[in-house]
Amino acid sequence: MISLQNQIILITGASSGIGTACAKVFAGAGAKLILAARRWERLQQLADALTKEFGTDIHLIQLDVRDRNAVESAISNLPAAWSNIDILINNAGLSRSLDKLHEGDFQDWEEMIDTNIKGLLYLTRYVVPGMVSRGRGHVVNLGSIAGHQAYPGGNVYCGTKAAVKLITEGLKQDLLGTSIRVTSVDPGMVETEFSQVRFHGDTERADKVYQGVTPLTPDDVADVVFFCVTRSPHVNINEVILMPVDQASATQVYRRS
Questions:
Q1: Which family does it belong to (predicted)?
Q2: Which CATH architecture has domain 8-242?
């Protein structure tokens, strides 16, 4: 098992959900954290809490991963003490609406594609060269069961997560011969702000997604990410699919009345 003590871990989408849960579990393991997200106040609150509880060294970046220039600037301008990133957690991602494809909203499509695919690519492109030059590193991409199985209304979101799956596989092949590890962690139903974002803040509709179900928690997913990055250096966990017991596939969910 690899120690994360003083390793530098960059987490995107760190201000909520799985990103926040990853930050907590890594802070508890003694890692140094670069936390990136759009919501600055939420980042600051998280950093204050982690510093108070664990004494964690933290560097914050207000960042929209869709903005390539901003990503380039954020990585190239990291202070020297923070520039040697050991682990990249590409967690930033979202879904918008459940419209049929032929009735879809173009803005929703672009937001999902720009965040889920292009944002992940930008971070990978600017961080991984440093890993290659140092001869060490690990990239963890947060995928989804939606990248393996389509579901009604999921069209473009499922397409973006299928892209994450194949980009992860391609990156693993491109890095063959290096010691850099590449992992995709693909959850099913996780109760986060995901559904509220999907339904543009409609809390009532979002709550119905998890009604009668015991979904995964962000901590459950963070626990799997932690397992993947702490294996022996010669071990690569290529892909993990995890779902709640109440879920059997992207479309099959058992709900208690």
A1: Belongs to the short-chain dehydrogenases/reductases (SDR) family.
A2: 3-Layer(aba) Sandwich (3.40)
